[in-house]
Amino acid sequence: MCDALVTARGLVKRFGRLTAVDGIDLEVRRGEAFGFLGPNGAGKSSTMRMIASVSPRTSGELRVLGMDPDRDGPRIRARLGVVPQQDNLDTELTVRQNLHVYGRYFGLLKPYVREKATELLAFAQLSERADDEVDRLSGGMKRRLTIARSLINDPELLLLDEPTTGLDPQARHLLWDRLVRLKHDGVTLIITSHYMDEAEQLCDRLVVMDRGHIAAEGSPAELIARYSTKEVVELRFPPGVDTTAMEARLAGLADRVEALPGRVLLYATDGETALAAAELRDVRPLSSLVRRSTLEDVYLRLTGRTLLD
Question: Where is the ABC transporter domain (predicted)?
């Protein structure tokens, strides 16, 4: 337990008659990257806000950095870094000034803040833009600045809510590199994300939340092994083809067969063997693809494919 920076037991958060978080247990260990996955309304953000000590729990136990957020909120927040889903930078200030002002919120001395800001600008690859106003930055640069700002107080625990939403692939990969460097430097990361490849790349362990509960927990590899298969065969069909009938025709060729509009998925240990068996049953798709199973397959199996508002 001494290596756990966050522990929760039976954690509950209610908003009136709505139960957003329904009795979850979790543990975030020092030095790891821990992820929360789940659809909108699953309880991810409510859990993150309780960990950030800005939203009181309804019931259950919660310890952050060994302290109780209800009693020690200011002390906890002083040792956290928070990257919100939406950038909230001061657009009328320069890049460097955003870091200076934020550092002063923590009561840090000006000489230290100036030195730390220079270090963080280099880390975020923004040194050449230090004296530009924030409005002149690209979306990826703003995101890197928001992460740099969250590190001004040398946090032990960094909370990142959808850190790469809306960024192009190049900006996403650059941010991933910055986050991996932070983890290697000993910063513990808690990340919410809708990008399954991001969770696979960054997270040592994660939980999948659904309707306020934890549906599954483990490393990405453990979850794939537990809830999916080694490979997936995707068979795509022309519009109008009854894929439900195709699913029945393909029954027994794989561990699991799933019919979707315009395609059928075969979850199998050996995708090529399953594909060859499908051809012997006179199944002729427009195209076929054999790929490895991913965290997205696990996510969709646990939370379903129906969009919930």
Answer: 6-236
**Residue 43 contacts residue 37 (beta carbons within 8 Å):** no
Tell me which residue of 242, 299, 243 sits closest to 266, measured CA to CA. Answer: 243
Alpha helices in the chain (DSSP H): 44-51, 69-77, 95-105, 110-123, 139-150, 169-184, 196-202, 220-227, 243-249, 271-280, 295-303
Q: How far is CA 93 from CA 11, 73, 140, 233, in A?
A: 40, 29, 18, 52
Among 3.30.70.1280, 1.20.120.80, 3.30.200.20, 2.30.130.40, what is the CATH number of 229-293?
3.30.70.1280
What per-residue confidence (pLDDT) applies to 167? 85
| Distance (Å, whole) CA 45 – CA 288 | 38
Q: What is d(CA 268, CA 292) in angstroms, rounded to the nearest whole number? A: 10
Centroid of chain to Cα 80: 18
228-239 residue pLDDT tens: 999 999 999 999
Q: Taking the domains of the chain in order of start, what are their residue ranges?
A: 4-224, 229-293
Q: Which residues of the chain have pLDDT under 70?
A: 1-2, 305-309
| Residue 66 DSSP class | T
Helix (H, G, I), strand (E, B) or coil at 16: coil
- Spell 62-77 as b/e; 16+ CB within 10 A means b: bbbbeeebeebbeebb
CA dist., res. 91 & res. 12, Å (int): 37
The half-sphere exposure of 230 on its side-chain side, counting CA atoms within 13 A, is: 7
In the block, tokens 């994660």 appear at: 206
pLDDT tens digits, one per residue of 144-185 = 999 999 999 999 999 999 888 888 888 889 889 999 999 999
Give, in words, the CATH class of 4-224: alpha beta
**What one-letter code names the amino acid at 187?**
V
For the entire predicted model, the pTM comes to 0.90
Tell the residue number behind the tokens 């934890």, with chain if given. 214
